[in-house]
């Protein structure tokens, strides 16, 4: 293994069968530590013909200390290398920093986009494996309103308890409103707010897909106010109060 300012040289091995079609590479955890990256971060992989940026995960314990990188055939073809060849990997600092910044902005509601979104807490077994399924499901909701706008984000909270991974989904309120228009059953859910009814409906819809996720509303896109919040469509005026005497 060669380590210098130009990157780290590793020998190419075939990807594990379970990682087929996942668009990832795997490298030694010790090398990840040297690059100051974690599972799920992007790295730059450069072959004889080309380079690409791709998500990186840790090698399995049986591959540790072999100075190898496991790459699928599609990526090998893209960068112009073969099994047994060598590639140079580097940390993609800018992308990693932007991803971390985006996660923080999502969690703290620091942008206009997020401030108009509801935040849903979720839990599942093996978020890394399940995230593509979650994204596919959310995209199917967008298709229902005939839109290709990215109304949602899904990201890990970095917590794990008793084998369960915890994640968050940020869903634009506009998507909630539009789905409510075409799915009147959302308002039949037993909850006070529209957002709570939507999450109950969303959870039931996921269960019908036989996906084992647990969802719970975490945060609402309400502005800061002082005093009571009145629903203009459901409050008593002066005449109502007189009639109640």
Structure notes:
21% of the residues are buried. The protein has two domains: 2-91, Barwin-like endoglucanases, CATH 2.40.40; 100-219, Alpha-Beta Plaits (2-Layer Sandwich), CATH 3.30.70. The N and C termini lie far apart (86 Å). The model is unreliable at 94-98, 104-115 and 222-228 (pLDDT under 50). The chain has helices at 29-35, 73-79, 93-108, 112-115, 127-144, 173-182, 194-208, 238-243; strands spanning 2-4, 7-14, 24-27, 42-46, 51-58, 68-71, 86-91, 117-125, 152-161, 164-172, 214-219. It has a six-stranded mixed β-barrel. 34% of the residues lie in helices and 29% in strands. By secondary structure, the chain is α+β, with helices and mostly antiparallel strands.
Concise summary:
The protein is of the alpha+beta class. It has helices at 29-35, 73-79, 93-108, 112-115, 127-144, 173-182, 194-208, 238-243; strands spanning 2-4, 7-14, 24-27, 42-46, 51-58, 68-71, 86-91, 117-125, 152-161, 164-172, 214-219. Residues 94-98, 104-115 and 222-228 have low confidence and may be disordered.
Main structural class:
alpha+beta
Characterize the largest beta sheet: strand count, sense, and whether it forms a barrel. 6 strands, mixed, barrel
Distance between the termini: 86 Å
Text of the CATH class of the largest domain: Alpha Beta
The residue fraction in helices comes out at 25-40%
The CATH topology of the largest domain is what?
Alpha-Beta Plaits
How do the helices and strands follow one another from N- to C-terminus?
A: EEEHEEEHEHHEHEEHHEH
Low-confidence stretches: 94-98, 104-115, 222-228
Number of domains: 2
Widest sheet, order of strands = 2-6-3-5-4-7
User: What's the number of extended β-strand segments?
Assistant: 11
Q: What is the level-2 CATH architecture name of the largest domain?
A: 2-Layer Sandwich
Q: Determine the mean pLDDT.
A: 79
**How many distinct helices?**
8
- What is the beta-strand fraction? 25-35%
Shape: elongated
- Rounded to an integer, what's the Rg over CA atoms? 23 Å
């Amino acid at each position: 293994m060669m380590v210098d300012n130009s990157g780290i040289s590793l020998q190419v091995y075939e990807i594990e069968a379970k990682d087929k079609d996942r668009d990832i590479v795997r490298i030694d955890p010790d090398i990840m530590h040297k690059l100051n990256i974690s599972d799920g971060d992007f790295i730059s992989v450069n072959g004889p013909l080309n380079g690409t940026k791709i998500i990186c995960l840790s090698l399995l314990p049986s591959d540790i200390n072999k100075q190898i990188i496991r790459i699928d055939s599609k990526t090998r073809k893209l960068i112009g290398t073969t099994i047994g060849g060598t590639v140079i990997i580097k940390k993609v600092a800018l992308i990693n920093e932007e991803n971390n910044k985006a996660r923080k902005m999502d969690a703290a509601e620091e942008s206009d986009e997020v401030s108009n979104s509801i935040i849903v807490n979720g839990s599942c077994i093996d978020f890394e494996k399940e995230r593509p399924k979650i994204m596919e499901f959310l995209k199917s909701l967008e298709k229902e309103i005939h839109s290709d706008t990215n109304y949602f984000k899904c990201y890990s909270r970095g917590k794990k308890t008793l084998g369960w991974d915890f994640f968050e989904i940020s869903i634009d309120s506009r998507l909630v409103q539009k789905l409510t228009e075409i799915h009147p059953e959302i308002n039949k859910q037993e909850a006070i707010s529209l957002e709570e009814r939507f999450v109950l409906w969303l959870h039931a819809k996921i269960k019908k897909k036989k996906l084992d996720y647990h969802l719970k509303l975490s945060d609402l896109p309400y502005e800061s106010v002082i005093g009571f919040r009145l629903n203009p469509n459901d409050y008593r005026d002066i005449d109502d109060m007189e009639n109640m005497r």
